[in-house]
Specification:
The protein is mainly alpha-helical and 40 residues long. The protein has one helix at residues 2-35. The protein has one domain.
């Protein structure tokens, strides 16, 4: 089951990248969204 290991690593990297991007986006947009009365 060597394929599963590579797939798992790829998924973990993908999730980590998406989490980082989402976190950075939220940090950048928090003040704007808060001013508009919304917090995502």
């Amino acid at each position: 089951m060597m394929r599963n290991r590579g797939w798992l690593i790829a998924v973990i990297i993908g999730i980590a990248l998406m989490t980082t991007v989402c976190y950075c986006t939220i940090q950048r947009n928090t003040r704007t969204e808060y001013t508009n009365g919304r917090i995502i």
